[in-house]
Amino acid sequence: MADIYLSVDVGGSQTKIIYQLAGSKKPNYLLMPPAVEEITKTKLDNYMARLGWIGSPSPDQQLWVVWDERVVVLGDFAACFDPQDRIKELKYENALWKVLGAIGLIVETSNIKVSPKKPLKVELALLLPWNEYSDRRKFEEQLRVMLAGFGVRNTPLKVNLQRFLCRPEGGGLAAVRIKQEGIDWLRSQQLGVLMFGHRNTTALYFDRGQLKLGDSPLLGFANMLDMVIEMTSGLDRERLAGAIFQARYAVLDEIYNPNYNHTRRPNWSTCAAIIALASAKDPNLRDKEVQDIDKAISVATAEYWDKLERWMSRVLPAQLDEVIIGGGAAYHVEPELEKYFNCEPKIETQSSLSRDSYGSGGTKIRTSGYKSKNYNKHFTRMIWGSGISEQVKQTFNLEKKLFGEQCTSSRLVDCFGLFDYLVGLEATNDKS
């Protein structure tokens, strides 16, 4: 039995980590900023000396890894050392340091007792973009070398990697769906998986059980954000992304209004989070700035979707039976996805809780299912997050945050699906 079961998704906007300790009944999760920066040991020592004793930052706020005399700072701590924008770099190389940092962080925050004579036993599952999936063997070989002896913060560690499982992004969602429906179902399906991330957008295509095609170009949400930034002034990706999703989750009733047969998009210029992006002090200039941001988001979204649509038309067949949708950025193009896959949300009438002498009333509610919008066109059923978003919310007791609980769970579902597959393998071994 392993000491730690660990699933890692090294996304472009966040590193998603799901783990479970031996003997624990349920998993936990960690979210870390994606920044990675290599610095000298002298630079780290000088920083800590200058800092002196100021407060008591948590381990995830001051996270660094030491291996072979190299020092790499991670997450929030990297921001203290002028990190470079690495969104176009290969994920798998930086993922090595992130896995080491995650293990060290789990050890410290969980108060796991470590001994230099007894290595920790870890089972690891990792998600990589399709275009880096062929590097999984190089990743595993280098990871085993690094795990033999490294340090996280001030803790020396040795790890015995008992199992390494790597899947392309979207593989966790596919594993969950196959578990739900069974192998016979998979062998009868033309199945697509789409993961809309910050850095990459990934597509997988299964033809009656066989993985026929995968692609993972740099068509992530950062593309759309950069277009908006180019058309406006004073914005950056993090602030803009936060405002867009905060604005969206503030008007969910409007977006999913059951009186409409499609998902709607917010009126950006009236959203408090978008208005807050404007920096001009003069009211007239501020209003103009808000209108410019509104227009830039609309124009950039249309251009972003045009790129996505042309790419999807190239890599996915037109006659898919079902497509699994994942990734936080997917919600930004939900109206376009409905049109592309010919999906109309199912609306049901729910009997009112109160009745009067004039009879019972009814309330329209939107369900999670879809029907064909145009019966003259092929209909591909969309499954959001393999239907496990609610399970993720309940497992981790997710509360509403800046990006909303729906977006938080959608960011975790792929990682959660792969984690579920990993511990399922362990359970199968225990029974055999």
Please describe what this structure looks like.
It is a single chain. By secondary structure, the chain is an alpha+beta fold. It folds into two domains: 2-167, Nucleotidyltransferase, domain 5 (2-Layer Sandwich); 169-399, 2-Layer Sandwich (Nucleotidyltransferase, domain 5), CATH 3.30.420. 38% of the residues lie in helices and 27% in strands. The chain has helices at 41-51, 91-109, 136-147, 171-181, 183-186, 221-231, 237-250, 252-255, 272-275, 283-315, 334-340, 389-396, 404-431, and strands at 4-10, 15-21, 28-32, 36-39, 63-67, 70-74, 120-128, 150-152, 155-157, 159-168, 190-196, 201-207, 210-215, 322-326, 343-356, 359-372, 381-384. The longest helix has 33 residues, at 283-315. The chain starts with a strand and ends with a helix.
Which characteristics define this entry?
432 residues; alpha+beta; Nucleotidyltransferase, domain 5; 2 domains; 5-stranded mixed β-sheet; 5-stranded antiparallel β-sheet; 27% strand
Could you provide a short overview of the structure?
The protein has 432 residues and is an alpha+beta fold. The chain is built from 13 helices and 17 strands.
- CATH topology (fold) name of the largest domain: Nucleotidyltransferase, domain 5
* Helical percentage: 25-40%
Instruction: Summarize the main sheet.
Output: 5 strands, mixed
Provide the residue-averaged pLDDT. Answer: 90
| Terminus-to-terminus distance | 14 Å
The CATH architecture of the largest domain is: 2-Layer Sandwich
> What overall form do the CA principal axes indicate?
globular
Structural class: alpha+beta
Q: Number of DSSP helices?
A: 13
